[in-house]
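[job 0412] stage=fold_complex status=start
inputs:
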Amino acid sequence: MRLLNRSAGRLSRHRRGPLAGLLVIIAGLLLTGGLFTAIVNTTAQADETASSADQVAQGRDLFLVSCAFCHGQNGEGIRTEDGNQIGPSLVGVGAAAVDFQVGTGRMPMAQPGAQVPSKPELFDDEETAALAAYVASLGPGPAIPTEEDYSIEGLSDEEREAAISRGGQIFLTNCTACHNFEGSGGAMPHGGYAPNLHETSARHIYEAMLTGPQNMPNFANGNLSPDEKRDVIAYLYSLREMPNYGGFGLGGLGPVPEGMAAWLLGIGLLVGFAIWIAAHTTRTNKKKVDA
Amino acid sequence: MSTPPVTDGHSHDEPVDENLPARDDLYANPGLEEHHWRPTDVDPKAEKRAERQVAALFTLSALCTVLLLVAYFTIDADDTIGGLGAQNLAFGLCLAGALLGIGIGIIQWARKLMADVEIVEYRHPAASSEEDRAVTIQALSDGLEESGIGRRPLVRNSLLGAVGLLGLPAVVFLRDLGPTNAQVVANPPFPGSGLEHTVWTKGMRVVRDVVGSPIRPSDLEIGDLVNAEPEALFNGGEDGEPMEGVALQVAKSKGAVVVVRIEPDEITPGKGRENWSVDGILCYSKICTHVGCPISLYERTTHHLLCPCHQSTFDLADSARVVFGPAARPLPQLALAVDDEGYLVAQADFDEPVGPSYWERG
Amino acid sequence: MDTSKVANSNTTTAATAKKPSKAAAAATWADERLGIATMAKKNLRKVFPDHWSFMLGEIALWSFVVLLLTGVFLTLWFTPSMGEVQYNGTYEQLRGVHMSEAFASTLRISFDVRGGLLMRQMHHWSAMLFIASMMIHLLRVFFTGAYRKPRELNWVIGSLLLLLGTLEGFTGYSLPDDLLSGTGVRAADGFIKASPVVGTYMSFFLFGGEFPGESIIPRLYTIHVLLIPGLLLALIAAHMLLLVYHKHTQWPGPGRTEKNVVGYPMLPVYAAKAGGFFFIVFGVTALLGGLLSINPVWKYGPYDPSKVTAGSQPDWYMGWPDGALRIMPGIETHIWGYTISWNVMLPILVLPLLMFTILMLLPFIDAWITGDKREHHLLERPRNAPTRTALMVALMTMYGLFWIAGGNDIIAIKLHSSINQITYFLRMAVFVGPVIAFLITRRWCIALQRKDNETLLHGYETGIIMRSPEGGYSERHLPLPESRAYTLTARERDPALNGGPEGTDANGIPAPGKGRLAGLQHRVRTLWYADNVQKPTPAELEDGHHHADHEHELQEGVEGHAADGHQFDGHHLVEDETLRNH
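[job 0412] stage=fold_complex status=done
writing structure:
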């Protein structure tokens, strides 16, 4: 009894201490957070097959606000009187196209021009998924690829090496004409360009090949099979991981920056040395005393 | 302060051109400037310091050489540093240090320590003296006279003729550098030899490059671009094996094609070419008609094909006519058909030579 | 000028004979067999003038030596064969790929031979430096008039060296048989085929049959390793010999005349500077080779006639013909069953040949226009030959615009513009640009000449502003130091053009035999010298000095005193202060 009394008194004292309130709040937060996490499942489903009607509805709301102005209330596209297009029809472009365009920030387009540049995304992953689901609901089209589609994780070393090697040959045949040997990009007519691929994610590369954004041709699965697409992505990633064996890469654009470096750095340094060599050295007014 | 002109700079054997005024120096040549010594010339301590500096540079160079040798035996080819290959970086920097150390050291030695009093040397006219010239001309004419070459035109001309003729074998013996186009066409080393032919024949399947799989029309969507090759590349070698070596390269350099699918409304078929496409699928030579680079920069919406080398642009929906750039002829078109199994095949070889223009092309 | 005290050593006491040294013993041994003392006597202490712009040719010379050294290294591992092999070496991304032996051996050099990649990169960088330095050396020689008699032949040799260097570079970077250089070879085949009449024959002979065949790489190897280096060595030797014989030109200045050379002796100073510069050129090349990646052929992959990369350019020194090719409109003529490809012939066959011929003939054209047949060993400042300077600047502008055209697709993506617009602009600019450049440069030179004259006549601007008691401001001018004034006036006057070509009588009738060209020559000569500002006549100089003296009188109160503006207000004493002068 005595022990209890004593400890109870001690506790009682602490209950009115300055830290007590803080401890209660922390405990309360932990409790509610823990309960919430345990009970509510919040992971978003980006899988086409699991899109819910809610997602489509959310996507439609976002679409009406951000996209309908150019693409029409139902994604049917808008034409001017002369037959020019303000925004193309999105019926049948599929979730993959939306995931690419919105995920790389290209859409919503900020200003008209020869080509839409990639820029910081306006929508987060959940919203992008919702938009994709909505557009997919307008008409059947290419689905967003899963990681198995574009990853070579599960392959043996030999298979991986073969995939990378084959991917390189496919890349050099189909892609380098526009995107350059290292994916540094290239010029297209009238201000268009094939963009730099150095920072593009695997999923977006896959989707671009699949859907042919803007002026890029399609490489549908009947043209380049999913395995071939995977191999191309594997090759590109291997290029990214590869060290620059010879030194700084000068942008990976070939002989033009190399020539500039030769002139500016090489000749610049050497002419600088020449000026130093032939320059007058320090002079003094003192006279030489003969030994 | 005007001074009378100094003696003019001409030597007397130079041709005097009346139209050119004599050199008139408005000021007399003040002569070499008084020499100013350098600190290292007058101050022994500065001199010693410069010596040490130069020696330090040479020592630094030696150090870099040693480092280079150490790096050679210790750094592996797959070591990296900061994303760069460590081997190349280390070798390059050490070698640079070794060389620059010696170079800068020698220059410093010259600038700080070697004598730097300017000295004067005299020029001589580029021409020899009159006497020498006279003697030489005399010798020359004596020699020629004694040879009789002036007086004996029969001997001289027949010699010239003989020597001139000898030049011919020097050129003619190069004849076997290679066959001519006509010879290659007459005796084709492999199918499709000669500038006017390719390996394409009637019924040959159009297959995807690298993988070699044949194509069905249903595989392609509108806007697709396929880089394709004749099937012979993959099974036209001995015993149905893939082609290899020179035959493969030559076949590729003329047989490579691009296959595109365009909305049929947008296509303007060429005259007589209405049945060369299959459901809006068209096939053109991939080899630019300018100087032969392969083209596959395709703009889906405009259906223009751009060559990366010199920016020739072709409109694939309009028989690949040139819409921009230095090319002068449209890309040859390959007539397509579908075989029994539903795969795309060629109806025949191209109806014109593929690739860059040449004189006899017609 | 008293020349009796010309120094030939650096000490102030007479040289005394010493005990025969080891060097002397070796020299004696050699001389007893080779008789080199006579030649050496003249050349060991040969004088070379010192100026940084005289070292540009040295950059070319030393980079050639670097090319030889690194090139020999590469030949020990390179296989010049187009035989097909399947790669199974170190570089993973190309394992299993079929390629030529040339490409495979290049991969081996890059990844399996220690130092191989460095040597490859150094070889490529020094090739670029070789050609670039030849070009700036050419420009220096031209702008200073050093190509005039007696050095015209050396100019011709130099032009040939530039051409050979360019070809050497092209054959060299085509040897690895990679995608980028192979595309260049393909284009070269297209150029050859476009030649009228003999085009296909030349193409088939060069390639040993149809493109690509299997002979081109071995043949380019022979050209690159044997034929052109042999020619280069011979021409460089001739170039150097002429330089030694004629002695180097020099800038006018105190102590320098057309008849002497002032500078440092070959041994030790010039040899040290030149030798040291060799190490520096070598070292800078090693720096570039170690730090900057060049020609990463493993990323291009082996050459394949059906593959290509965006940004396909030749190396920079072929950039200008490539540019001309890009902006040329697509014109072809088909007559009588034959094709004349103007679109390829004009930019690739006609234009470079024309430009090169004009380049080689420049000294002779210059001599014809100016009629100047004297020897020249003193250099001219570019501003003192405005038309000549402007002409070269116009040629440089044309070259530069074609060069830019060669990179039009890279410019388009980097500057976010349209390649079509760039092409249209350049089609116009290559004609208009040089004309504008010519006019601007010429006027600029003339303006600079006027400035020089002003300085001669009125003195240099000291930056000290004087205020007169009445309140007027003026800037104090001081006469140039004698050496500077001499240097500025040590140039020639342009010839008087007496209103008619030489050899005509008072009525302008040309004397027989001097006919048609004489009239043209006279007109061109008039234009050549038009508007040139001559150096002052003695009378003008007198006037100028009188005027200056007069000004000095007016400012006598402060003659020799610092002019900080407080001379008249008694703020401080200025008795012993002196004006700055150069």
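[job 0412] summary: The longest helix of chain B spans residues 44-74.
[job 0412] exit 0
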